[in-house]
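Every protein is a chain of amino acids, and every chain bends into a shape of its own. The fold becomes a row of whole numbers, each drawn from a learned catalogue of backbone shapes. The protein below has been through that process, and both of its lines are reproduced in full.
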Amino acid sequence: MKETPRFFLGANSKKGFVSYFDELQEKSNNLQLLILKGGPGSGKSSLMKRVLKHATDKGNCVEIIPCASDPQSLDAVIDYTAGFAIMDGTAPHTLDPNIPGARGHIMYTGDMWDCGMLLKNTDNIEKLTETIGDCHRGASSYIKAAATLLDENSYLSGKYIDKKAAQKFSEKIASNLKGGKEFKEKRRLLSAVTTGEIKAFYNTVHLYCDKTYVIEDIYGGFADYIFKTVYELAVLRNEEIILCPCSLNPDKIDHIIFPNSRIALLKSNDFLKFDGDEKINAKEFYSFIPMSRSMENRLKKAAELLSDAGELIADAKLLHDELEAFYVAAMDFKLADGFFDEIKERFYN
């Protein structure tokens, strides 16, 4: 099976859970969106994996959206060939159709539960649900603290950029873009703090690009300037863009992929180690970096905080497995098999 692009569409950030799932409903995507509703263990991810296999077996153009809280599980599958997407529409990425029945549809996978069995375990289910929420809130707190430290480094280092040289370099990259008749943009997360680690989909970039520029910048000021400037120049050229915000601080750009031009601009630092065809060392563009010891201390503390966040997300995953066990035991999966047949009939015939 050929390699398939993978992105996250939501993750814990300094602003809490950030979500781009609503983009699947945009008219420009021309997608029929099926939103799955149902609690843990009701077969949502398994159903999406069956849809994924069906789509890839047909040779369709597909995009995979894993769950940031558990990258082995799926949050969505987008089949561009069929004009169809299926997603988990439950918390924390709760979503309802904008145009119900015409472009947006709902399927309830939790209708096959033995509610009497679940009722007997209400106390355990409530405690687990509350603790999982506490883990994710704690992870977001760590991420917010880490992002604040990294933002300060970016602000300080940004004051000492050789702006003329940086502008010239930005224009060099933009000059290689083909441009187009109409500006197109979609937002995807190429990395996120997940179960015990920062997970990045390095291979995805090479599925879209033949040429990659990697900005190596541990402090961030130069990278922030380059990404902002190249993005603005790309918009003026009506370029097709896959914009990859920073999952820690979604107001910042971490990477930009230009699918039509087959070019990517990537950030590499202590947390994300991207490789590429042309590497640019940010140190060459800084006139002077003051307070370097303080900035290095912030980097170390941010790394510790992000490690703590990953551990909490891993704890939440283990607790979620316990929670799912109650629902799996109460689920009649034989009746649930009909969901996949219904999807094939409605969206693939």
Observations:
- The chain has two domains: 10-112+333-347, 141-293.
- The radius of gyration is 22 Å.
